[in-house]
Amino acid sequence: MLRLPKALVFASVAPFLLLAGIAAAQVEDPPPEACPADKGCVEVSLSGETLSGDFYLGESLLAAGQHSALLQIEPRTSQRIDVRNIQDSAEGFGSLFVWADASTTAWVAEGQTRRATVYPRKTYVRGTLNFTCDVRGAVETDDVACLVTVDEVPQPEPVLPGQRASYVLDPGAHTLGVALVGEQAPLWSPASAEHTATVWAGGTVSLRSRFDKMGHLTVTLDQPDLLGDFYLDDELVASQVASYEGWAAPYRTHRIAVRNIVDPAAGDIYRWRDAAASVYLSPGQMRDVTVRPRQVYLRGFLSLTCTITNFEPGDSAVCQPSIDGQPVDPVAPGETAEYTLEPGRHDLLVALGPESDWSADPVSRTTYIYAGRTQTTSATFTLDRSSPLPAAVSGEVATVTRVFDGNTIAVSLNGAYYRVRYIGIEVPDRHQACAPDALAANLSLVAGRQVTMVPGPTEYDSMGRLLRYVYVGDTFVNAEMVSEGFARALENPSDTTYTPLFQQLEQEARAANRGCHATGLWAPPPAPEPAE
Fold first, then answer.
1. CATH code assigned at 361
2. How far apart, in whole angstroms, are the C-alpha atoms of residue 289 and residue 281?
3. With a cut of 50, which residues of the chain have pLDDT below it?
4. Rounded distance, CA 302 to CA 371, Å?
5. Is 406 within the bounds of a domain?
6. Which pLDDT value is given to residue 8?
């Protein structure tokens, strides 16, 4: 707005404009006008340098759009001078604030000139909202900025990270929406924000919208060749992959889950349970996460070792097993085969076959299979190349009524009851760790069954028990207990008939680590150290 220099204005009882100030604008520093002797003069100006207004004496307009005016008034009379329609060349006038009309009262004597300043009141009609775009961790080369809407009205220019924008708003509540834009915007969290700010006339409200840089996750499974569906905070982010990489919001703990895990090698033997892990992310942090699923077996395993003692090259003898009545692959002497089975009870029958030159009763076992575990058993057959074992038919036929331990039973024989101890073998004492296993093995062979007992040279032992070689069918129980590793050979000077056989079976059981030999119960003592 053009502001003219001071105008000289003179007034009487009927005020009128004496000098119009336009001609005075041509003078760089106009000299003060002399005030008539019969009048009083007042030089009136507005308080702000950027202000201008219309000067009134009463209802008479004496100067329009001026910053100051020299007025002549009646002396010794109080006169009110009004300044109306005040304008301001400063920024924000009209949109943010206005100036109220103002007045002053002047009293001067004849020929006197006085100065008077009018102080108008600044009235704010709107307020200011200062907004700062706070994108944490952004650098100059990042293509990211804040796009602002005020009361759903988009603002023309995005605000760069760290910069501030000011908005002049009407008093009251306003909604400020902020959305991140730019190529790198997806790397910050949250993607957008909404704020409510109350603005009052003449006030300034500061508001900052903060965005933190996301953290980066690399998620892998701890087992190779597995594929799964990856979930981040229960949201599917990748399907049937081995690993996942992505960004996630900072300052929080995220839950990573892998479901529907597929293993090409699993078949119907096992599966993998769904697995999860939790991880906390800081802004810009890079985290590697390993998810460890648990393997759940659906089936178990039976390991069968075929032992044929006195076997020589050229012998046509193998172990021919059947499981639950179904033949399975034969096992060569000295070999071990493993079978995959459903959990539960299974009946194992092993015969000497296929068309053996040797005759022997099948070995029968009942085994319980547990998912993910291996049950170990063996079938032992002896090829006797020397003298045949005592014929079962020539012995005493009795019924087993009780099994005490691995080599002691009770039988019913001819209406009487006897305790019988197996000749030539010994088993773990009852307080030793393997004693229950030896008892279980003996139970599986003879419990409740009809046996044939062959006496040796000595009828009774010192405890009054019968000393016998015991058979179930053609199975030589004494030898079977040693072969399975649940008994060992016991030297008896009065009866050495089968001592070599028992010793050979014991050596084989120890070499195969069967039965009680696996516990170290009968491990040979260490060799003495040589004397120095």
1. 2.60.40.10
2. 11
3. 1-31, 386-393
4. 11
5. yes
6. 35
